[in-house]
Amino acid sequence: MHELKIAEELIGIITEVAKSENLKKVTKVNIQFGKMIMIVPDVFRFVFEGGVKGTVAKSAKLNLEILPVKFACNKCKEETEIDDLLFVCPYCGSNDLDLTQGRETIIESIEGEKC
Ligand SMILES: [Zn+2]
Questions:
Q1: pLDDT given at position 83
Q2: Which pairing describes strands 61-67 and 23-34: parallel, antiparallel, or unpaired?
Q3: Where are the domains of the chain?
Q4: How far apart are CA 99 and CA 39, in angstroms?
Q5: pTM of the predicted structure, to 2 decimals
Q6: Cα(115)–Cα(113) distance, rounded to whole angstroms?
Q7: How many Å lie between the centroid of ligand 1 and the Cα of residue 37?
Q8: Ligand 1 is an ion; residues with CB less than 5 A from it
Q9: Which residues of the chain have pLDDT under 50?
């Protein structure tokens, strides 16, 4: 269950940001994951809610967004969103692809109330 490790890391960052921004309370956290991180949103939500207990983010609303996997083809230069993880360009059939999106773990924004 790698959600736990990721949640712990993100909670660490969130509490650091809250501290440096003088937030008395974090009200909302927007997080984006690339699809290839293989996050199960319900599992993440569960471990996140457990992990923020007793922290400044304990009542934060968690917004999760899963970003689709995108590749740029090195042969025909098309960019494509790939739903099943078949690493073949749908335009030219080449497998010479660069991942351009899908491995992100991003805290997009943190909202809260100032002290
Ligand atoms: Zn191609």
A1: 73
A2: parallel
A3: 2-67+102-114
A4: 18
A5: 0.87
A6: 7
A7: 24
A8: 73, 75-76, 89, 91-92, 94
A9: none
The pair of structure tokens assigned to 17 is 């940001």
What's the pLDDT score for residue 85? 64
Reading across the β-sheet that carries 105-114, which strands appear in turn? 61-67, 23-34, 105-114
Distance 71 CA to ligand 1 centre (A): 10
Note the CATH number of domain 2-67+102-114.
Answer: 3.30.2320.50
39 to each of 22, 104, 107, how far by Cα in Å? Answer: 30, 11, 14
What residue type is 37 in one-letter code? I
Ligand 1 mean position to 91 CA, how many Å?
A: 5
